[in-house]
Write a structure and sequence with these properties.
Blueprint (H helix, E strand, L loop, with lengths): L1 H11 L3 E4 L1 E3 L5 E11 L3 E12 L7 E9 L3 E8 L6 E9 L6 E9 L14 E11 L3 E4 L3 E5 L4 E5 L3 E4 L16 E6 L7 E7 L6 E7 L5 E8 L4 E6 L8 E9 L2 E9 L2
């Protein structure tokens, strides 16, 4: 028993690191994260540090941070390190089911006072954003993607992670009654895409059911939606963003009857 506990503590206190996806990836921004778990008696404290490095010749005017946590998580605190001496920071959240179902989202916007000189992140400097949250111990856990937007005077750079998986098993909230997303599958192609993306879906017994398809931006705003009746157990949805939709990461939700599937789309123009 003591040996198993020692191995658990040894594994869970080892940091986990990963790199984020960058859009557009022009080599001027680097983004990664480091995750550390501190085991407790009945709960674990998870610390995630998000690093965004600015290799541009100009500074970042503002930066937006988005995280999604399981409903059972308790956000303890957060802190940040930026170039600006006195940045303005606003926070929104917790936002229930903002983008990811069965989760709460938190959104931070960090910017400089217009009367101040300098940038949030100067050239060749970095943003370090750290947050800690508390969760009941599980044999494994899956965290939804986190994301950031770095706003420059002439462009915006998006960063987004994959789902962060800890342990040997996935952790999922208990599904809502009647919501069996395993019956429904979606395959977007191509992804990333340039002008349009085709989402092929399939499911047993979905013929004749109501279909609802929505696309959200990184702030959770609905930018596209459609409704129709399903005439077959297999079908296809085509999304062709207009000229006003910028390069970046978007999230979709396909709902048929009481089943839904969520995913990520990457638009490159």
């Amino acid at each position: 028993m003591l040996i198993n506990l020692f191995l658990y503590l040894l594994f869970m206190t080892s940091p986990v690191s990963g790199k984020d996806y960058i859009f557009p990836d022009d080599g001027t921004v680097q983004s990664d994260y480091v995750l550390l778990i501190s085991p407790g008696i009945s709960t674990d404290t998870i610390t995630i540090t998000h690093n965004v490095i600015n290799y541009n010749a100009i500074g970042v005017d503002s930066i937006t941070i988005l995280i999604n946590l399981p409903r059972t998580a308790e956000l303890l605190d957060y802190y940040y390190d930026v170039s600006a001496a006195n940045p303005l920071v606003s926070r929104q959240g917790p936002l229930e089911n903002h983008i990811v179902p069965n989760s709460v989202a938190y959104l931070w916007i960090i910017k400089t006072d217009r009367s101040s000189l300098g940038s949030v992140v100067d050239p060749l400097d970095h943003l370090k954003f750290t947050y800690r949250f508390l969760m009941s111990r599980t044999t494994g856990m899956e965290l939804a993607p986190h994301a950031a937007i770095a706003h420059f005077p002439d462009k915006a750079i998006y960063t987004v992670s994959d789902s962060i998986i800890i342990g040997e098993e996935y952790f999922h909230e208990a599904p809502e009654a009647g919501n069996d997303s395993a019956r429904l599958s979606v395959l977007p192609s191509p992804n990333p895409f340039n002008s349009s993306v085709r989402l092929k879906y399939a499911g047993d017994g979905i013929k004749g059911q109501k279909l609802d398809f929505r696309v959200f931006d990184i702030l959770g705003r609905t930018i596209y939606s459609m409704n129709s009746a399903v005439d077959s157990d297999r079908g296809e949805i085509v999304w062709s963003p207009g000229v006003d939709i910028a390069t970046g990461v978007y999230f979709y939700r396909l709902t048929i009857s009481n089943n839904h599937v969520d995913g990520k789309l990457m638009l490159l123009k």
